[in-house]
Write a structure and sequence with these properties.
Helix 8 packs across helix 10 and helix 13 packs antiparallel against helix 14. The chain is an all-alpha fold. It contains 14 helices and no strands. It has one domain.
């Protein structure tokens, strides 16, 4: 049986792995990808430990959760709390909670079919935005100016007053309905297909919360969340910005895995998403 401590302890050291990537070698940034992978394995194997399994599912989303905390806490002065101040006690407490749990069989909670259908419908709206958005990022291979030109054209559509509120509402519903469905799917989650579906769903939920809130904050502050906003930091040399590398790389893959599970073709779609994600990072690194 998988140890209930593996996933929360892996998440606990996640920031340290990224810091090693900045201070020692970028190879350590690649090692950070092992944290969500280890957590996915834990989700698959902790069937008789529902609390530890839920904690492992949260650990899958360590990259977007760390970025979300950083975006909200590291650039404010209202309270003397940063993301690391929250991260260490959070995962230490979750590790203790997982360790103290006794094996039990979690009750199966059925989810209403209409909610699953509505969740899929809102996902379709998001995919209609995500596909051209990914093309936009791939344009970065041609340089920042090409990226901004494509983005400017696309913004005429997705920032239209009749479109943007619908898109934001779809994202909000996707996160809320996804959390409800995850809670009910986790106790009956058996097999790798189901595990990958709930794990990728967990990652995407936290990514949406982090990414949308960051973009909206930038707009409120008068910034423009475009290519130069993203590529402005030293991604592999700055202790804060380095967290964005696994965060973005895995987001595209999680999107592919989640869609692939729905289509019963997770491997093929995940491979395609991995190629796209790699090309996007190549474009970002070329902008250094």
């Amino acid at each position: 049986m998988e140890s209930p401590l593996v996933a929360p302890l892996a998440a606990l050291v996640y920031p340290a792995i990224l810091w090693c990537g900045v201070r020692i070698s970028p190879v350590f940034v690649a090692f950070s990808l092992a944290v969500p992978v280890v957590a996915v394995v834990a989700v698959a194997r902790l069937e008789q430990r529902p609390r530890a399994r839920a904690i492992a599912l949260l650990a899958v989303a360590a990259p977007p959760l760390f970025s979300l905390l950083g975006g909200w806490l590291d650039f404010q002065r209202a309270v003397p709390i940063g993301s690391l101040t929250v991260w260490a006690p959070l995962w230490s407490g979750l590790a203790l909670a997982a360790a103290l749990e006794r094996p039990v069989r979690a009750p199966v909670l059925p989810a209403p079919r209409w909610l699953a259908i509505a969740h899929a419908a809102s996902a379709s709206l998001i995919v209609l935005f995500a596909l051209p958005h990914l093309v936009n990022h791939l344009a970065g291979l041609l340089g920042g100016d090409a990226h901004v030109a494509v983005m400017t054209a696309l913004r005429r559509v997705y920032r239209h007053p009749a479109v943007e509120p619908v898109l934001l509402a779809a994202v909000a519903f996707q996160v809320a309905s996804g959390a409800w469905l995850l809670r009910r799917a986790l106790p009956r989650c058996t097999g790798w297909l189901a595990t990958l579906q709930v794990a990728s769903g967990s990652y995407l939920s936290w990514f949406f919360l982090s990414h949308v809130s960051a973009a909206l904050r930038a707009r409120v502050r008068g910034g423009d969340p475009n290519w130069y906003w993203l590529a402005g930091g030293e991604l592999l040399h700055d202790p804060w910005s380095v967290r964005l590398v696994p965060y973005y790389f895995l987001a595209v893959i999680a999107l592919g895995v989640h869609a692939g599970c729905a289509l019963r073709r997770p491997a093929r779609v995940a491979v395609a998403a991995g190629i796209v994600s790699t090309l996007i990072l190549v474009g970002l690194f070329r902008a250094r």
